[in-house]
Amino acid sequence: MVEGGGRGDIHRRGAKLFIDLVKYALIPAIGVLSPLFVIPAITRNFGAEGWAALAIAQAIGNGTALFAGLGWSVIGPQQIASHTFPEALGIYRLALTSRLAVIGPIGIITGMVSWFAVQSYEGESAIIAVGVMGAALTPQWFFIGLNRPLTILLTDGAPRLAAALGSALAIDAGAPLVVFPIATLLCVPLTLLLTALALGPGSIPRAEDWSGVVRVIREQAVVAWGRSISIMFTSAPVVVVGLVSPQASPLFSAADRLLRMSVMVLRSVPSRLQSWIGAQSASGASPRARVVRALQIQIAMGIVAGVGFTLLAPPVSSYVFSGEVGIPLLTATLSGVLVAMICVGAGLGLGLVAFQRANAITAAIIVGAVVALVAVPLGSMIAAADGGLLGVIAAETSCEIVQAVVLYRVMREPRRR
Q1: Higher confidence at residue 261 or residue 233?
Q2: How far is it, in rounded angstroms, from Cα 168 to Cα 38?
Q3: Which of 261, 294, 264 is closest to 277 using CA atoms?
Q4: Where in the sequence is the domain holding 251, given as residue range(s)?
Q5: Is the distance from CB of 155 to CB of 198 less than 8 angstroms?
Q6: Once rounded to an integer, what is the mean pLDDT over residues 326-341?
Q7: What is the number of structural domains in the chain?
Q8: Which residue has the higher pLDDT, 232 or 185?
């Protein structure tokens, strides 16, 4: 009876984990649906030139958002999972006020850089870059820690989906391109409003929260700078290839966009694993077993996803980019390798955070950024889009080697077993 009950308990836990993963998969699914609505409308009406301009601007916005987010998406979920709800609300308020304090000046810089980085549609590019950067204020990390994925859909996913769908319909009806950037920008305050309604008055920042802004920013500085440095091999390659090899920009941007959309869906798994590992740490038990299992899951998922991306990217690109940009098999293969590597990197990052080695992620990112600084522009000059992808692969490889070495060593420490 005990054994049967034990097996039943294991099955119930497994079923709950699977259901949670399905719920978390809905979050990035919305994120993928949004561009699937609007990108074809943009390429149909404004061609590859309009697409390339917005792609570069979005890459800049995504890059600056990494710093504006102050690293809360990295360490926040496991912190929230290990605290009571009232304590979690206090952490949320501190996180919100600290990000609000930096987002203004970062937004100005983001808009200016985007304006000068593109060769056309400068105003539209500046607006959408600021709107994308505003995603640094997203409450996703907080609700992940609370294991409330459906709330993310309501507060963050629904506004973005509505903005994309509305923009696509408007553009096809003859509206100017600026409609989409404006809609993207308006999603930021709408998400904050919906989050406040979902969490109640306890989520509204208080005077004492603002007084702690400088302290919080200082505490988050290492992780925030690490996230910012990762721009060199996440968002910056799109901009670099556009500057170094302009003729390769549409293809590289197209491959990068499909890659990021795929990774967005796949992140539903590590998102759920964050709170799963965090709950184990909160109980006082070693997270070692769950870290190992999480890494195994991420490796297996990476292999399957990488092969799937390689096979599906060429036909999918014809639809998404309205025949304006097609992804050949070699480009799809290199992108598939990157998809697999990003999955593995997410697993390594989960382990380092669980063992309180988040700063090691920053060290690894610095190594990757140095490699990317040379490899991406050099590769794109020699072999256009494929060369740029090889440069990103080299950067990602160096980053993950550092993470793997640190995680291996910390897991071998006797007290960690």
Answers
A1: 261
A2: 5
A3: 294
A4: 2-416
A5: yes
A6: 93
A7: 1
A8: 185
pLDDT of res. 2: 45
Q: What is the pTM of this model?
A: 0.68
297-317 pLDDT, tens digit each: 899 999 999 999 999 999 988
Give the CA distances from residue 241 to residues 235, 245, 315, 338, in Å, rounded to whole numbers and listed in that order. 11, 5, 24, 17
Q: State the pLDDT at residue 257.
A: 83
